[in-house]
């Protein structure tokens, strides 16, 4: 299988598990797409849907809920690009202490280290707490994956994975689609404790 | 919901099962699941060599268990180097005690858990709650059963026994607000409500799917994401895992991960596989590092590992597939099909982890159909181990009278056959109400009204043999016919049909009078010694006949003789004789299909020309097939009988679940008639759905069950043995 076919397989497998694929992106178009999408989405859904909606508790509900995007600190290189995109749309860009937002954020943007084609899986080093939270507490997780980082199988990645996992405190995530459950009547439901949506931006090399 | 008690009698257990059988939701859910699972698994393994992947798991787990002492040492060394506090727990109480002490020492009050069967095994939740901790399960299914004060009913889908309406009612109480019975919404209730628990928790407890010795990395395979939150937000992380979870390297873990989700839920991979190497960053700690503990639980595992037969129990990767395909599980659900661990593996581990009083009834609730073995992610010989556990329990507790009687009678072939003959004269119970002989339990019991019972033949096959034996001038080959008890004493006509076919093919047939019961009924009732006695009798009975094959029309006999004889007779008979005996065993259809074209039946594949009567007597000629468990899975014979049906000129129509058990299972159907009845009804529905008027099979036990059910339920379905179809002797009447 050549690399083009691998990319194809990765796309197909990731879509099968309800991930959304955005192919042939530059970093800038990827971020723009993400921010625009965040603007459109309904606000953070981890609040209790059966209680009054967030932002409506004070002042008779006039104030709009401010949306938040989590960008972990180790992604500082993206901040200069992302910051103006967010502020022009009234979105708050948060770059640290995601624990303070653990009830939920609207979007988390992170790089992915590898893609695994045969299962449509992302491999993401999540050693930092904010990396873990950005990929978990956000309604939408946007993963930036350089196409060249797609490999055929997890076994083929064994050496690289062992390197990632070697250091004390290492926390490595395989992420395959958004969080899901079939615990009630075996009916598939997307978005349990993790993201409701997973968007994978395939970056051109 | 009725609770399990530790000293439950078989009668009480049966009652609990009857309640489950009356649960319409459970029944429908289980039926759907059983069918959907097979399809899902097939798709998940598409284009892969499933057998090879599973074999790799079996081999690597075996090596890891054999090498466990060194691996444990390496894991502990690496873990401590990485800053993990490692604790060894000899049993459940010790593990729980360690964990509650960790909690107290770290001043924890609120505990969140992600799903852990090991924590279920140790009954960790009540232990912690009794010591003042607030424990919240965060896996959706586990949370639901926790709120209902139940245990899980499936290892992967803990709340599979509940409907959305029940969950909606429950969540309405929890949130104090009416919740609709819409699954998407109910899931969001859990998402929102539990998020607070994650945020407030001091301690997260998880299990582990893998513990990697080389790097002290733990692996967690999950879908919902709760394990990631439980290992990120709380300041203390405790892992509770069996020592059997240790693997040498990541490569091994990845090989297991390739099979585990595919086999469990038909997913190519779960949403999350999380790899944690020691305490990770935690900003709510002054040290910026989480406090991390691993509690390694033995609880009988070392003893299992040292047992040459049972060590394979530890190869289990907890995928739950053995429940997914179990015909009994499908009928009764997980609360009735396990104590803590569920499905076939649960029947076995209950004995080791939770004691024989909890295992005593469970181990009998098995039809011995072998579906679990065929699907197992680690190739564990589950049906055999279930029988061995049963035998052990009887050895430890004393054998019940009915099983003792069976053993005694079987040891003496003449007495055994004499009793059967007298039963044929009187047609009355020989031993009161006991289901006395496996192959003939129903004549002795009044609990079997769900199927019409066959009468014992006036003259058994063995007494007809002298007259029947064909005189063949130039035999093409010589075979021995092994009849088994049911055909000999209940269905001699099936054997006669076969003899007719053999004669046509110039096959010389011998019927050694020294042959007895195959011994499977004894094994099914936990009478291993009796099984050994008859095994030895049977091998000896074949001496001096110089036949090429030992052909049997009973798939159960074929499978038992093939797979059990070596272990039973080793050391009692010469190795060469045992090997020679086993190699010559062949099921009827396999024999005819292999040799018919050349020798057995002139005309070979044109069997149709020999069976015109069958066409006329079987109605419109649409025939479907029930594959006996011990033929398809036991002997690996799948296509031969169907090829023969087609070659006989009939229109073969395939049933959707042709390889699903009919529910006979010998003493199983005597012990659990209600479950047997329900499995049978499903089976007959499936056969009838094909539009066939004749259901053919190749095991007298299956014939007995299926025909009895078809007659009792007044179905438009005749049942016959393949030999009768081929010989053109299918009866027009139903019995």
Low-confidence stretches of chain A: 52-63
Number of strands of chain B: 18
Supply Rg of chain B: 28 Å
Query: What is the straight-line distance between the termini of chain A?
Result: 19 Å
Structural class of the secondary structure composition of chain B? alpha/beta
Secondary structure tally, helices of chain A: 5
Helical content band of chain B: 40-55%
Shape summary of chain B: elongated
The proportion of residues forming helix of chain A, as a percent range, comes to: 25-40%
Q: Mean pLDDT across all residues of chain A, rounded?
A: 91
Number of domains of chain B: 3
Find the structural class of chain A using helix and strand composition.
alpha/beta
Shape of chain A: globular
Strand content of chain A: 25-35%
State the end-to-end CA separation of chain B. 42 Å
Radius of gyration of chain A: 17 Å
Mean pLDDT of chain B: 90
Binned strand content of chain B: 5-15%
The biggest chain-chain interface is:
A-B, 60 and 77 residues
Return the CATH architecture of chain A: 3-Layer(aba) Sandwich
Quick overview:
The complex is a heterodimer of chains A (205) and B (735). Chain A is an alpha/beta fold and 205 residues long.
Characterize the structure shown.
Chain A is 27% helix and 27% strand. Chain A has 205 residues and is an alpha/beta fold. In chain A, strand 2 (68-70), helix 3 (76-87) and strand 3 form a beta-alpha-beta unit. In chain A, helix 2 (27-40) crosses helix 3. Chain A is globular. Chain A starts with a helix and ends with a strand. Helices cover 50% and strands 11% of the residues of chain B. A six-stranded parallel beta sheet of chain B has the order 1-10-7-4-2-3, with helices on both faces. The longest helix of chain B has 21 residues, at 24-44. Chain B is elongated. At the A-B interface, helix 4, helix 5, strand 9 and strand 10 of A face helix 2, helix 8, helix 9, helix 10 and helix 11 of B.
